[in-house]
Amino acid sequence: MLSRDKPALSRTAGRDAAHIDVGATGRIAHLEARGVAIDYAKPGSKEVTTAVEQCDLSLERGDFVCLVGPSGCGKTTLLNAVAGFVELAEGDLELDGRPIPGPGPDRAMVFQHANLLPWRTVQANVSYGLELTKKVKKPAAKQRADELLELVGLAGVGQQYPAQLSGGMQARVNLARALAVEPEILLLDEPFAAIDAQTREVLQVELLRVCAARDVTALFVTHDITEAAFLADRVCVFSPRPGRIVKEITVPWPRPRSHEIRRTREFSQLRDEIADVLYGAKAGAGEGTR
Length: 290
Ligand SMILES: Nc1ncnc2c1ncn2[C@@H]1O[C@H](COP(=O)(O)OP(=O)(O)OP(=O)(O)O)[C@@H](O)[C@H]1O
Fold this sequence. Notes:
Layout: E1 31-41, E2 48-59, E3 64-68, H1 75-83, E4 90-95, E5 98-99, E6 107-110, H2 122-133, H3 138-151, H4 167-179, E7 185-189, H5 197-214, E8 217-221, H6 225-231, E9 234-238, E10 245-250, H7 265-283
Parallel strand pairs: 3-8, 3-9, 6-7, 7-8
Antiparallel strand pairs: 1-2, 1-4, 4-5, 9-10
The structure holds adenosine-5'-triphosphate.
Organism: Amycolatopsis carbonis
InterPro entries: AAA+_ATPase (IPR003593), ABC_transporter-like_ATP-bd (IPR003439), ABC_transporter-like_CS (IPR017871), ABC_transporter_ATP-bind (IPR050166), P-loop_NTPase (IPR027417)
Keywords: ATP-binding, Nucleotide-binding, Transport
């Protein structure tokens, strides 16, 4: 347990890596945050900005959890902590009962902008991360890239270049690229925010199908309540900064899901429930800067 009163040398890995915490239930969660706080130093001052505070979250293997919340409440910060990019000021963040040791191939980030390498073919973009790991030879990496491109609905475009693809196609390549290293957890930061609404709906269905096919756990940040309700097993609503989860709302429908679910009355009610919590949390906002 990290505490601001007791700074650890490596604050993310603040406890013995061999120690496994089974918690009160006796079960080890796949990903667990307990009392997590994350601070950013303010340049040229001793003050800090607390982005996330008292954050508790637990995911089982294969869960799909969406994080929604006001702008600047710390959603991306929490994803970055799970990715191992930022340290904790307080609390515990564990994968399978062990503190997150830093970045690793077991977790892959998918960002809003695909940022594909324009001089590499689509296939070479997807196989790039795999080639870097040197775990497989180039022909095998290319073959895996082709399999993933087929999985995301892009069979046959492997020899094209990113500039020849639409935004929706680039988003699919972005997803295939993240899956290439066979991560256990996908960390998706508004991956479809820049895509038109119609294509986004198609991509959401595809994402659920792909996650089921690869049996990955997903933590997905979005500002779109409809998107969260459609994708998630649970929607976690954040307070304004410093962000903490004020409510977890369970989505009752099994995954994968089809488009029709969005047109039902139950879906509208669920969306309203998420919105009520979100706007209620915003209205009760406090100050977040120490
Ligand atoms: N590298 C950084 N250095 C200092 N402050 C940061 C840094 N990254 C984020 N912050 C601050 O931390 C807070 C949370 O930012 P974060 O990007 O996690 O929020 P968010 O919920 O993802 O926002 P949005 O929905 O607008 O993308 C913000 O006040 C932001 O300004």
